[in-house]
Write a structure and sequence with these properties.
The protein is of the alpha/beta class and 409 residues long. It has a domain of 239 residues: FAD/NAD(P)-binding domain (3-Layer(bba) Sandwich), CATH 3.50.50. 34% of the residues lie in helices and 30% in strands. Strand 11 and strand 12 form a beta hairpin. The longest helix is centred in the last third of the chain and has 28 residues. The two termini are 38 Å apart. It binds flavin-adenine dinucleotide. Flavin-adenine dinucleotide binds next to helix 1, strand 4, strand 10, strand 14 and helix 9. The site of flavin-adenine dinucleotide has 35 residues, from helix 1, strand 4, strand 10, strand 14 and helix 9.
């Protein structure tokens, strides 16, 4: 058997979640390898495309604690208010950053810009080796270590580690090799993503509007633009993508209304099929499964990455504390601690997101009346709004150090 290069930690996947974990643990004394299938910075990297990502305030705290926020801050647009309404009906509710005592409820950044900041940061740490483009092909858990087979430019090689983290996305080959059972649901909906420029300034308000074909989100961006996430039924996707810009703007205007005046310009459009996936286990042997590999959510509430980065903060904390006292970072008690910490929140966010996606896509009158009463109740009961705002900000439950803005160590 050929000798394998040894690491403490191997992260498979350098998307937003895998890259964030590598950054969180860089400089803590661990030997880390990050294996990514795409060339860093290449336009073909699907994780870092033109999608707008709403970062919760809690995610900002994590980026602050790992030292990424000063660079990221220059590329984000703050969300000061969130306005939630049901198209053509009476209910609506508003959340304000000022009511929560925070500078912003969240921040909007394109996945591409976020990727640039994370990849630049990865390149700065000598103890962190980014192996890309390369694929994890298979792995073998030998009990006291994991042997990882990778393929790079047609050449196979072996690496070894104490802990393998699967951050290899919704189609995770590592999760599949482990045969971890998953809950899956196809929504038969896709998100059409683009940006539009409205006649009136957005004043840093994010809009979530529920319509009979699915939710529409409008997020504030720089240069007066707004990012659009428009959920449509799969059968409508080709038709919406084929519209010319004027027809698209008219169709979108009809969905969203005139709250920001007439939409004047549209950017490039892309469609993302929507599905739910939740792995029933997030650790097995010496492998931890995080981010989209563990839970892929409907983007209705912008929770996917925000949940993933809270996984990162918790996993980084348990791994760092074990390593600091000379313990094995891939031992069952370390990974069990991680799973016990995160499983309730992962389940609750997946259930809440799925429930919202179904409730607000349901055209039945009883569902419509129920959700409008719900929105009105939220609006007039400040005590009910506060937990909603804390959830939107990613600040419910026991927070890891990084999520409290406190660096590791
Ligand atoms: C339309 C849309 C809008 C969204 N908006 C929001 C939002 O506003 N807020 C929010 O929090 N979330 C949002 N999300 C969710 C967010 O995009 C995901 O949660 C996030 O991208 C998950 O990142 P990840 O790193 O886990 O997975 P991925 O981004 O899928 O990254 C996986 C990485 O692993 C690599 N890889 C795969 N297999 C291998 C292998 N065998 N070897 C090596 N590398 C491999 C891939 O190349 C990729 O880089 C949205 C999603 C969609 C679709």
């Amino acid at each position: 058997m050929s000798t394998a290069v040894e690491y403490d930690l191997i992260i498979a996947g350098g998307g937003m979640v895998g890259a964030s974990l590598a950054i969180a643990l860089a400089g803590r004394g661990l030997r880390i390898a990050l294996i990514e299938a795409h060339t860093p910075g290449a336009d073909s990297q699907p994780s870092y495309d033109d999608r707008a990502i709403a970062l919760a305030y809690g995610s900002r705290r994590i980026f602050e604690a790992v030292g990424v926020w000063p660079t990221l801050h220059e590329r984000v647009e703050p969300i000061l208010d969130i306005h939630v309404s049901d198209r053509g009906h009476f209910g609506c509710t508003r959340l304000h950053a000022s009511d929560e005592g925070v500078p912003a409820l969240g921040y909007v950044v394109t996945a591409r810009e976020l990727g640039r900041v994370l990849l630049d940061r990865l390149a700065q740490d000598a103890a962190l080796e980014v192996i890309a483009p390369a694929r994890v092909v298979s792995f073998f858990d030998h009990g006291d270590r994991v042997r990882v087979e990778i393929e790079r430019a047609g050449v196979m090689s072996s690496l070894e580690c104490r802990l393998l983290v699967a951050a290899d996305g919704g189609q995770s080959a590592i999760r599949e090799q482990l045969d971890v059972p998953v809950v899956r649901w196809q929504y038969a909906q896709s998100a059409i993503v683009t940006n539009v420029t409205p006649a009136q300034p957005h004043h840093n308000v994010a809009y979530e509007r529920f319509t009979d074909t699915g939710p529409v989100a409008l997020l504030p961006m720089s240069e007066r633009r707004c990012a659009v996430v428009w959920t449509v039924r799969d059968a409508q996707v080709d038709e919406v993508l084929a519209l010319d810009d004027a027809a698209f703007l008219a169709a979108f205007q009809q969905r969203f209304g005139y709250r920001l005046g007439r939409f004047q310009r549209a950017g490039r459009r892309a469609a993302y099929p929507l599905n739910l996936l939740r792995a029933r286990e997030s650790v097995r042997g010496r492998v931890a499964i995080i981010g989209n590999a563990a839970h892929t959510l409907h983007p209705i509430a912008g929770q996917g990455f925000n949940l993933g980065i809270r996984d990162v903060a918790a996993l980084a904390e348990v791994v760092d504390s074990a390593f600091a006292i000379g313990n094995d970072i891939g031992a069952a008690e370390v990974l069990d601690r991680y799973e016990r910490w995160r499983s309730a929140e992962q389940r609750n966010v997946a259930l809440a997101t799925d429930g919202l996606a179904r409730l607000f896509s349901n055209p039945l009158a009883v569902a419509r009346i129920g959700r409008n009463l719900g929105l009105l109740a939220m609006e007039f009961l400040p005590a009910a709004k506060h937990p909603l705002a804390r959830a939107a900000m990613g600040q419910l439950g026991r927070q890891p150090r990084l999520a409290r803005g406190v660096p590791l160590g």
